[in-house]
Amino acid sequence: MSVAEYFTHSYSGRIRISILILLLVLSGLGNSAAEAQQFLAKKNPPHVIISAPEPLQDLLARHFKLPAVPIADETARATFIRRAQREIRELLATEGYFKPAITLNLAPSSKIPVLEITPGPRTFVSEVSIEFRGDLASDEPGRHARVEKLRAAWSLGVGQPFRSPIWEEAKAILLSSVAEENYAAAEIEESKAEVDSASSRARLLVVLNSGPAFRFGDMVIKGLDRYDQSLITGLAPFKAGDPYRRDQLLSFQTKLQNLPQFSSAAVNIEPDAATHLAAPVEVVLSEAQAQRVSVGAGYSSNTGARGELNYTNNNFLDRALRLNGGVRIEQKRQTVSTTVDSIPDQTGQWFSVGGGVERTFIQELETLREKAGVSRNQLSGKMETRLALNWQREDRQPTGGLQQVNQTFVLDGQLRYRSVDDPLFPRDGSVTEVRIGGGSKQLLSDQDFLRTYVRHQFWYPVGDRHVLFLRGEAGYTFAPSRFGIPQEYLFRAGGIQSVRGFAFQRLGVREGAAIVGGRVMATGTVEYNHWFTREWGGAIFTDFGDAADTVSGMNLNVGYGGGIRWRSPVGPLALDLARAHNDGKLRVHFSIAVAF
Predict the structure, then answer these.
(1) Which of 250, 462, 566, 589 is the most buried (most CB within 10 A)?
(2) Rounded Cα–Cα distance for residues 410 and 485 (Å)
(3) Residues forming CATH 2.40.160.50 domain(s) in the chain
(4) What is the Cα Rg of the chain in Å?
(5) Beta 216-222 vs 279-287: how paired, if at all?
(6) CATH 3.10.20.310 location in the chain
């Protein structure tokens, strides 16, 4: 069926009806919990009712404890009102109310006492005085400009309501802003809020002593046994004599924590004024096990049951190189591979070299692939890039088709941008990947080609329990023909993270009884997740797309359904039941639903 024919097909309405029914079911299940809470509240009414302005209701409900039993007599009443007046005055003072009226009365139409709270006038800031001492207070243009910038950034200004949490937060931000650059020993010497309850005005005073300006000294490394100290010092974004910067210390610590050679790393300086001209940088490390053998087993509806054996050596050739080798046996795919990675440098760049052999039998297409390559990789913030040279030889045998041996030498570039709130359980953010690579007959390739690919995933939170997930991908291989190009540089679709409702790599070009890769592909997903608890949720989705040899040969294949989501200790798991709209077949898809 072509794309145009699909949109005029009479069955398209069934998809909308099915999705509507699933949405109503998920909504009904979510509402039932709220109705149950309302029922319990009616069945167990409070022994005292609080009457207070709406902005204060949440504060009192969270921090003031109502009586667990009815107030039986005047003694209990007096005890309760004394406690209420003491605790509620303290609570309201944090919000700037210092003259509240608190009374306990019996409502005319009810036997339940009412605790009536009138907060009185709110206190506002009338004056702010921020004084600096130490090196930062010296009469130097750069320091003077920084002082003015710090004062301008003060968050609790004149005319704003005085609130204790905001007052404490403003002081903490001020101290952190001073201490993050040059002044590691900065401290608040004095702070006070003078409240005039008669005029409802507050005068604020903060005195901050920056102390002397610090500079980095020599590095003191502890806990290093197997590795040379140059492995550590080469990653530092500073050198002895540089001005102190807290963000550089944290960046250095993060780099060390991310190295597989160490199980933990801590970096700090002692804020001792006596050593401010050359403060020693202390690096405390705990080395991880150098060699490790691991085994695993699992199942995927894409490639079936699997077992694997992996070996890791974090000090290969005694040069802190990381060797990874492994064997993975799956029902439809078997792989043996080895990779050696260097240590990332200051810019987050490292090199990899590796190779492997892989055999697959998917959709009646058998392939035997031998490959080797070298790459330069870099991770900088949210951006990851990779530039690689890969050689590959593939022996392919489609059932009922033409056997071919294809060889290629490819220059391959990849860019991935990740901006998500949680790498394991994303609710907000996006992941974008762009890849381009090609080979030439003039350089060890059987075919001239240029492969392009782009993918974008987007998570959007809807309230506290709902997440909208959108995914789109497209690829095109520019070439005179698909013949002579290994399958890795062509496209098939279907299965998990593609078009559910169709078997793994079921969508492509038919060759004999097999499905092989084509030169063009486009797929997409619209998925709506509802979380009943923090760990368990449900989803409804629609996937669509196709892979073909030409754009005109593409059809709109649609799969839709629902599934279960579980935030397991090892990552998100998904179990989906999907229906292929074209043939009406139901298929189960199971996967570890990783974000990228």
Answers:
(1) 589
(2) 11
(3) 344-592
(4) 33
(5) parallel
(6) 124-209, 216-287
Per DSSP, the three-state class of 565 is: strand
What is 216-287's CATH topology? Ubiquitin-like (UB roll) (3.10.20)
In words, the CATH class of domain 344-592 is mainly beta
pLDDT in tens, 475-526: 999 999 999 999 999 999 999 999 999 999 999 999 999 999 999 999 999 9
For residue 160, the SS3 value is: coil
State the Cα–Cα distance between residues 499 and 573, nearest whole angstrom: 18
State the residue for tokens 């520019």: 478
Q: Is 75 helix (H, G, I), strand (E, B) or coil?
A: helix
Per-residue CA distances from 326 to 309, 310, 329, 518 (Å): 6, 4, 10, 30
Q: What is the pLDDT of residue 55?
A: 84
The CATH homologous superfamily to which domain 124-209 belongs is membrane protein fhac (3.10.20.310)
Kindly state the tokens that stand for 12. Answer: 């398209």
- Alpha-carbon distance of 485 to 404, in angstroms, equals 10
CB-facing half-sphere around the CA of 305: CA atoms within 13 A? 0
User: Which among 488, 479, 335, 521 has a CA at the least distance from the CA of 406?
Assistant: 488
Q: Which residue has the tokens 């709109």?
A: 556
Element (H, E) at 589: strand 586-592
**How remote is the C-alpha of 290 from its chain's centroid?**
29
CA distance 346 to 151: 35
Cβ 70 vs Cβ 77: under 8 Å: no
Instruction: Give DSSP secondary structure letters for 396-425.
Output: EEETTS--EEEEEEEEEEEEEEEEES-SSS
Residues with Cβ within 8 Å of residue 314, at least 6 apart in sequence? 260, 261, 288, 289, 290, 291, 320, 322
Q: Identify whether the C-beta of residue 580 lies closer than 8 Å to the C-beta of residue 587.
A: yes
Q: Quick one: CA dihedral 170, 174, 180, 185, positive or negative?
A: negative
pLDDT in tens, 348-379: 899 999 999 999 999 999 999 999 999 999 99
Measured distance CA(391)–CA(339) in Å, rounded: 15
Question: What is the average pLDDT across 338-348?
Answer: 93
Neighbours of 595 (CB within 10 A): 17
For residues 71 and 295, what is the distance between their CA atoms, to the nearest angstrom?
Answer: 64
The predicted-structure confidence for 438-463, as pLDDT tens digits, reads as follows 999 999 999 999 999 999 999 999 99
Residues in the chain: 596
Half-sphere exposure (Cβ direction) of 350: Cα atoms closer than 13 Å: 19
What's the whole-number mean pLDDT along residues 530-543? 96
Whether 116 contacts 147, CB under 8 Å:
no
